[in-house]
Amino acid sequence: MADDVSEEETNVVQIQEPEEKDAGVTDERVKFVQTVALAEGELDSPININLTYTVPIDLPPLYFAHYEVLTKKVKLKNNGRTMVLNCTWQPKQPVPYLVGGPFTDRYEFSQLHFHWGNTCMEGSEHTVDGVQLPLEMHVVHFKTEYLTHEKAVKQPDGIAIVVYLFQLVLFQLHAEINPAIQTLLDSIETIEHADTHVRLENFPLTFIVEPFNVDYFLYFGAIHTSVLDHNVIWLISRHVMNVTDDQIEHFRYLYDVFDEPMLRNFRPIPIDVAERSVFHVCPSTVLISTLLQHLPPEDTYIKPKLCKHSEEEEEEEEEEDGEETTEQSICYCP
Ligand SMILES: [Zn+2]
């Protein structure tokens, strides 16, 4: 009975734990998409998502496990190429991970970062039916089996990125201002210059990352840079998030490693990008081929649980920061 639950118990974050069978499921559909990954994983990314030609497929539900757990530390960094969010959790707390969907193993949260452009007519790396959106967020994960992001990035199935696209909304519609993005942007002036960071108040990742189980796009494509080539499993949310012109403008306050304004940091779609399979996983009952407006359901949208950290705590953690920052803040997108 709810009345019998102690205050301590009610403060425990409820975690949606996927069933054990989901972590190891290798049914025929999952095997099939893995075959496609082998065949197409080294083709270029990003791509245009042509909604009419996506291939519907049923896969086991995707789970964002432990994403609702409050962080121990949140750091926002300008790494000279993008704005990166790194997090740590209490030692006994599992790091949030993806499981189910196209995966046969866990993919652990590594970092998230953004891509934007010089105007609101550009910015996203992926386009949808030829349309480029003003902002794209990459939530980067590495396969837990490989232990670190750096080791995972050398494996063909090591990295999975969840993509959220943002559409422009009018500033006048105050309710439409994205509060999560605004929380990050409120601190952006303190990280104007490359290789600077600021610590934010704690919140669960669900404050920024909207979990989904079904109704997303899936394809396989590599990131090729001058320093590294690596394959990525791309999962693209069908729900488009909102952002205002003013919010996008704030991203352009950042400076790159050459101390030049970071005005556009998206990779354009290669001119000769190869066609490949783009799956629409478990399409919803909305039959029209389109992106969907972001409408966070009241019961699942977790508002931030802000938690002030003391200066003493900050000093204690400075040493561990060094290793964590070096290891996890690397952004492999230019
Ligand atoms: Zn990226």
TrEMBL record:
One of its GO terms (cellular component) is cytoplasm. It comes from the Eukaryota. Residues 19-282 form the Alpha-carbonic anhydrase domain. InterPro entries: CA_dom (IPR001148), CA_dom_sf (IPR036398), Carbonic_anhydrase_a-class (IPR023561). One of its GO terms (molecular function) is carbonate dehydratase activity. Residues 1-25, 308-334 are annotated as: Disordered. Residues 1-10, 312-326 have a biased composition (Acidic residues). Belongs to the alpha-carbonic anhydrase family. This is Carbonic anhydrase 2-like isoform X1. It comes from Agrilus planipennis. The lineage of its organism: Eukaryota, Metazoa, Ecdysozoa, Arthropoda, Hexapoda.
